[in-house]
Amino acid sequence: MIIRGVTSDRFNNDKYKQMNTLEEVEKQGFVTAELEKEKNLVEEIARLKKEKNAVILAHYYQQEEIQDIADYIGDSLGLAQEAAKTDADVILFAGVHFMGETAKILNPTKKVIIPDLNAGCSLADSAPTDKFEAFLKQYPNHTVISYINCSAEIKALSDIICTSSNAVKIVDSLPKDAKIIFAPDINLGKYVQKKTGREMILWDGACEVHIEISADKLKLLQGKYPNAKLIAHPECQEVVLNDANFVGSTTALLKFVEEDDATEFIVATEVGIIHKMKQAVPHKKLIPAPAVTNNTCACSECPYMKLNTLEKIYASLVHLQPEIFVPEETRLKALKSVNRMLELS
Ligand code: 13P
Ligand code: SF4
Question: Ligand 2 pocket test: which of 162, 302, 306 has the largest number of ligand atoms within 8 Å of its C-beta?
Answer without folding.
Answer: 302
